[in-house]
Amino acid sequence: MPRWSPDAALVLEEAAMALFAEHGYAETTVPQIAERAGLTTRTFFRHFAEKREVVFLRDRELPTAVRTILEALPTGLGSSQLVEQGLSRAAVELEQWRAPISRRDAIIQTDEHLRERELLKLDHLAAAIEQGLVAREVPAAEAHVASKVAALAFDLALRRWLDAEGSSLQDELDRAWSALRQV
After folding, report:
1. Each residue of 74-94: pLDDT tens digit?
2. Where are the extended beta strands (E) located within 39-102?
3. How far apart are CA 84 and CA 93, in angstroms?
């Protein structure tokens, strides 16, 4: 296996998530993750600084995904239309990942440091949206506010979607936007 490989990172992620679900986050060690993945501890540390990083592997893709989604939207849309349509497109993609997202969320909820890191992820989402809006020539102040509101709406929708069997992420996004408009 090469020194660094995205495939190795994914194998480590799957092994770690399975162990976290089986034994708990705090009780799982890096050597256990490496052994389950069929790799060495050294390989683990080539990919991740610590075991917490495994839980947030997919977050590395966030800025690129947000930029791609926003760039693909039609021209002439205002900031609120951009964020609503952008999150709707993201929701379609995420819908198929409900089970792994739910498993990840259950693991995050067991550890205070993971919950803190998850909050930081929302800030990263807002920053990625803000950058994407500015790239679409939305004024900086407007982009800042719209990005914070969009991150809040997305978090609210995601929470509700994970808690409500049978709902779609898009339905929960619609409810979140409606609730924010009421305020």
Report:
1. 999 999 999 999 999 999 988
2. none
3. 15
Residue type, 41: T
Please write down the HEC assignment for all residues of 95-126.
HCCHHHHHHHHHHHCCCHHHHHHHHHHHHHHH
Predicted structure pTM score: 0.84
Joined together, the tokens standing for residue 138 give: 């939305």
Low-confidence ranges of the chain (pLDDT < 70): 1-6
pLDDT at position 2 is 42
Single-letter amino acid, residue 112: E
Between the alpha carbon of residue 64 and those of residues 12, 15, 69, 175, the distances in Å are: 22, 26, 9, 26
User: What does R_g of the chain's alpha carbons equal in angstroms?
Assistant: 18
H or E element that contains 72 = helix 62-72
Residue 22, judged by CB atoms within 10 A of its CB (0-12, 13-18, 19+), counts as exposed
